[in-house]
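Why predict the complex rather than its parts? Because the way molecules touch one another can change local conformation, and only a joint prediction can capture that. The input here totals 356 residues.
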Amino acid sequence: MEGENSGEDGSPIKFGRHKVEEKSGGFLGAIIESIKDAFGFGKRMDDYSTAEKAEESQAFNDEQMARMKATVEGLHTINETALTIVPFGQVGYKFYTDRSDDITGTDFALEAVAIIPIAKIGKVGIVIKSLNGGRAVLGFKTFNAFKKAYGVAGKGKTWHHIVEQTSSNVSKFGAENIHNIDNVIKIEHGAGTLHAKVSGYYSSKDFFTGGQTVRQWLSTQSYQAQYDFGIQTLKKFGWTP
Amino acid sequence: MTKIKDTATAILKFEEAAAKHADATEQGDYKTANKNYAIIVKAVTFLKEHDEIQKLSELLSHSSDGVKGWAATYLLPLKEREAMKALEEIAKGSDIRSLAAETTISEWKKGNLKL
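Output of the joint prediction:
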């Protein structure tokens, strides 16, 4: 917001320049505002009682804003995690992170993202350490929330869970470890497609399943074992990552 | 399915069902696969009841990996070396039978397979 006040000499003093920048910055500006509101990171000085104070305030605010922008813009260059996470800020998810985890290369991104406090929709997405490989990803409480964030898979495609979204798996591993982009991939959908073959295979009984379906047998396995088997199944039916 | 009355019929039914199971699995047709699994189990039950399960050995060199794999699986408790060899051969392939064979070997080594 552009505004003005009277300086000591009575001349108008422009202030709030950074506000204009934030708005013109669109999404970036929204994140900056959120960070500032949540943690006081990027405090403002708004003393315009004198020209000197106004100048000092402006310099202080400019410096703070530069720091915040550098923080957020940095997210876009640190690593792919940041690229994955940052766009979700604009739709109002509240993120958390487990600071006890040492996720190489992503700490900075997580720290910044974790303090985006926009809670219009509520706690539906959280930053987790992926059980597959350990990178930071967004986990969701429901598949619908995942799809709301990532959109539709596209024509002729569907979202496919590598570790299946059975009630047993959700209960054992947590919904966020099931509904995240490391575990949900886009594949071809429809009769005779990869998705039909993999789903059909999981409903069948095989050498090693002891009379259970592959799906039932898989449910007794660890997350990593289910993930590895899921990837192998996809590959055997012709999928290429 | 008609009742199995002799060993030759049991082997034949086993062979046909195992081949169909493999084809159906490759297509993701689980209904056909499971229907044929039931026939495999019936044939195996007959062979076990008549102490003829070792007759499945003649299928260990079958051209269908499905037939070879099912025979090898049920022979693991009796003829482990030959059965493992057959499964290892299948595991070298690139289709879904190879993953099944690989997983069977792993489960057997872990003592998880009840046959």
